[in-house]
Amino acid sequence: MAIEKNAKSKGRNAAPRSEKLPAEPLHGSAICPVAKKCGGCQLQGISYKKQLEKKHQLVKECVGDMRVLPPIGMEHPLHYRNKVHAAFGRDRKGSVISGVYESGTHRIVPVEHCMIEDERADAIIATIRGLLRSFKIKTYDEDSGYGLLRHVMVRTAHATGEILVVLVLASPILPAKNNFVKALRAAHPEITSVVLNVNDRHTSMVLGERNILLYGKGYIEDELCGNRYRISPNSFYQVNAVQTKVLYEKAIEYANLTGKETVIDAYCGIGTIGMTAAAHAKQVIGVELNPHAVKDAIANAKRNACKNITFYNEDAGDYMRKLAAVPKEAREKVDVVFMDPPRSGSSETFLDAVALLSPERVVYISCDPHTLGRDLDALRKKGYRPKECQPVDMFPYTDDIENIVLLEKTGSREQKREGSAKKTVGRPEIERTGKRNESKRKSGDAQSGDRGYQKELRKVRAAAGSRRPQAAKPKSGKRTH
Ligand code: SAH
């Protein structure tokens, strides 16, 4: 194994600011033996300091005219990924292999140890490879449709140490499932839950919509910024817990909350940003398309006794549009909007509605500087001035970078004109891809849990004493991760 191992690199330490990074980082020259085929770590072989510089440059090029602070990096930028997927298959000799798909193909590159994944997850996946033979479980063959095990997903909780193993099968029946789970737990007593996920579709999505509980609670719980969160298999959770804390603290700082504000947490996932903000605001509204995540968010609000938050299971753009259509005197003024859309960025509907709702501040959190730049240009035209951007390195060794941008309402026409004039100079136009609809289509039958959650939603609303904006009707979302 060519990857350098470092006992200190388990990611338990708080993230320092980039200026505290060692002059010549320890892992700059670590080269993974499958780096080329895997393609996941595009910045292999580049010192961590240089990686941050490259990312800083990229962000500056993408976001246009504003102050872009140097990225906040990690002190120990290895083994940070708390969500690990492995595809299962066989090599030419018929031996079971697991790993990642070779970039651009459906060929599996076997991976024993990955320098950015949680090491406990890698060890569990190795054990499962071994168990398949003794339990005579076949791996799934995409071409013939024959076989059972497609993927394994392992989620580890940074603060609590809980571990969820999700076995993704092509059918709901795992022969000798109790003994299989017993053997897995005997090898890894640290596992706190095992779920069988059924994915019987011809799809590139890892998870299907149906989960069958085999052991434990069916989710992990983690702690973040003073709250405890449940995270189910199909819900989004930031993959780097150490840096998420840094990210959220900065987002809350930018929001500049005094306790009097009405805040929207758009694309809220399991409610983490909203619940962190709720302690400093009058009320928070969370909007999220994925019904699994909304269920988690509602449970999380109860768990944290967070009474001033309400969740809507709806497309964020649709929700905002309907809210903006309610006459001003019939709704609360929205003071701050947090928005944290997927890579494809936000929709025109959403951005138009932001302008109509006219919050004082927008805090835009993004994992793609290109779509971020495009959406900032749209917001500039609508009278919002991007003031400052703080990149946070959530993805060392890859070319991804997370950014938080604070935008303030300018109100003045001159500033609006000035803002839009400066916008795209020298930067390529990024089109909206319509990915959102694509993933809605792909993710299948999310309806099943919907009715139950609607009931829960009403209960939480009642408990929170919050009223629903008149025009906003929740509908079922279909996005998964
Ligand atoms: N803010 C959360 C989640 C960010 S990831 C966090 O920090 O953990 C982006 C989230 O947007 C995902 O949960 C995804 O399900 C959700 N999403 C994607 N498209 C959406 C849409 N059109 N409307 C609302 N939510 C959407």
Question: Which helices and strands occur, and which strands form pairs?
Answer:
Layout: H1 35-38, H2 48-63, E1 67-68, E2 83-90, E3 96-101, E4 108-110, H3 119-134, E5 149-156, E6 163-169, H4 177-187, E7 193-198, E8 210-215, E9 220-224, E10 227-231, H5 241-255, E11 262-266, H6 272-278, E12 283-288, H7 291-303, E13 309-313, H8 316-325, E14 336-339, H9 348-357, E15 361-366, H10 369-381, E16 384-392, E17 402-409, H11 413-422, H12 435-442, H13 450-464
Parallel strand pairs: 1-16, 6-7, 11-12, 11-14, 12-13, 14-15
Antiparallel strand pairs: 2-3, 2-5, 3-4, 5-6, 7-8, 9-10, 15-17, 16-17
Helix pairs in contact: 2-10, 3-4, 7-13, 8-9, 10-11
The structure holds S-adenosyl-L-homocysteine.
Q: How does this model look, in words?
A:
With about 475 residues, this protein is an alpha/beta fold. It is built from 13 helices and 17 strands. It has helices at about 35-40, 50-65, 120-135, 175-185, 240-255, 270-280, 290-305, 315-325, 350-355, 370-380, 415-420, 435-440, 450-465, and strands spanning about 65-70, 85-90, 95-100, 110, 150-155, 165-170, 195-200, 210-215, 220-225, 225-230, 260-265, 285-290, 310-315, 335-340, 360-365, 385-390, 400-410. The protein has an eight-stranded mixed sheet, with helices on both faces. The chain has a seven-stranded mixed sheet with strand order 4-3-2-5-6-7-8. Helix 4 (about 175-185) links the parallel strand 6 (about 165-170) and strand 7 (about 195-200). The chain is globular and about 70 Å long. It binds S-adenosyl-L-homocysteine (SAH). The site of S-adenosyl-L-homocysteine (SAH) has 20 residues, from helix 6 and strand 12. S-adenosyl-L-homocysteine binds near residues 269 and 293.
